Amino acid sequence: MNVQSPTVAPKSPIAAKDRILHTAHTLFYRDGIRATGIDLIIKQAGVTKVTFYRHYSSKDALILAILHYRHQRWMAWFSQALGRYSAELPLPAALASTLLEWFTGEDFRGCAFINSTLEYAVPLPEVRELSVTHKRDMAKAVEGYLAESDGMSDQAECVALLIDGAIVKAQMENQAQPAVRFMQHMLEILIRQWSTKAGADNE
């Protein structure tokens, strides 16, 4: 998966505002929010300081813009990839394949929303709010692949928790395969349990 932009954004024909956004998106995700200063973003985006502040009044405003941008791009990729794999595989295997595609990318640095929340939710509470929305939307995307039941919403939250666990494990250990394998195994167990319970409830 490629939800990243080039480290040095092209100066043309992309508008200055988008160059700033794409450059900061890459640097924040790769190096962290606190480690990335405005001056570096300005330099690599190829804009002046006046131009930067014309489009983004502060670093905080830029951070929130990037999280909105990241959410839209990541969710579009996730929905497309999960749908593609689900056409031929059951949900556990499809989800494992989806995550493996992401985890094995050269630019993988974990979840931008988990990272941002840990790093910047205290000085900028809106980061936490956007991250919660992101995770809720991720769970909602998964819910569409679950067997219909009264507990679908809770089941989707369980799957989302497994996804987050796999993301953190892959990031910490720098290994994609074990993380997706364990996630797939746990999801297969859960789905069997949910199926058994639904059958018992219908008797």
TrEMBL record:
Keywords: DNA-binding, Transcription, Transcription regulation
Pfam families to which the protein is assigned, alphabetical: TetR_N
Gene Ontology MF terms in the entry: DNA binding
Domain (HTH tetR-type) ranges: 14-74
Listed InterPro entries: Homeodomain-like_sf, HTH_TetR, Tet_transcr_reg_TetR-rel_C_sf
Location of the DNA-binding region in this protein: 37-56
Coiled coil: none
Tagged with keyword Transcription: yes
Domain of life: Bacteria
Protein name: TetR/AcrR family transcriptional regulator
Naturally occurring in which organism (per UniProt): Rouxiella silvae
